[in-house]
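Morning run. Coffee first, then this:
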Amino acid sequence: MATAIQITAVAAAYAVELHIVGAHASLRQVLAYTGVANLSLFVSLTPGAIGIRESFLLFSTNLHHIARADIIAASLIDRAIYLAFLGLLFILAVGLHAKKRLGMNADDAADG
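And here it is:
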């Protein structure tokens, strides 16, 4: 059940990205695109499969029939969201650890 939810969520994310860039992809195309993108994780030679996933998607255009320009644009959106999410996690982690390092806790803040 969890795997089905994950596949649905990932496919929905890719569908939204493709829709944003103007690619009118059918459900079958989105599922093929998602499958190829996830297959590239097995060949991740770089951190985050940078360039590998995009190459897989470009080489497999015969499977999903999505234009190369749409793949590149959707990949840029995907990477931008990924970097923004990592940036937010970094800020959260630094904030949590900064309080610990400075010896501040909720009781100290309440006392003033």
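The helical segments are 2-20, 27-39, 52-59, 61-64, 68-101, 106-111. Good start to the day.
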